[in-house]
Amino acid sequence: MKNVLKQPLFFAAAGALVLALVIGVVAAIAHPTERVAEKFCKAMEKGDGKAMVKCLTPELQQETTAESMISGTVFEDITSDKRFDVTYCIGDSIENPEDESIIVPVTICVKQKGDIVDVYTMKLVIVEIDGKEYIRSYH
Question: Which residues contact 7 (CB under 8 A, 6 or more apart)?
């Protein structure tokens, strides 16, 4: 064991492991807004209006029903027809210094038999309330 500790390669490997752990922790902490955006998009992909509502601010949750999140919206169109495959891509978040919100762009791609039939773009405006991230608006 004493010989291993004297090897420069051992210290390089140990240093790389520590650096990887630090980067992983910082990345997980640095982008909490992407987690709420990811939850919202996964719920949208499944057509789960109830889970989508849970991502909204408490004020909006009181005003919004699960049915109204889906019914008569683009979400209904892209999730109700099982012939379509829906995928999404969350872009890099942008800080809005005016109101301390975060804007997260989302691209929704609708495919049928491997061909793209429609592409939607949406912006999620995310705010922090009592230490938790919520979607204040989406358009």
Answer: none
Q: Are 120 and 108 in contact (CB under 8 A)?
A: yes
Rounded to whole angstroms, how far apart are CA atoms 11 and 8? 5
HEC letters along the chain: CHHHHCCHHHHHHHHHHHHHHHHHHHHHHHCHHHHHHHHHHHHHHHCCHHHHHHCECHHHHHHCCHHHHHCCCHHHHHHHCCCCEEEEEECCCEEECCCCEEEEEEEEEEEECCEEEEEEEEEEEEEEECCEEEEEEEC
Q: What is the CATH number of domain 32-138?
A: 3.10.450.50
Q: Do 135 and 56 touch, CB atoms closer than 8 A?
A: yes
pLDDT, one tens digit per residue, over 77-116 is 667 777 788 888 899 999 988 888 999 999 988 888 888 8
Q: What is the pTM assigned to this prediction?
A: 0.71
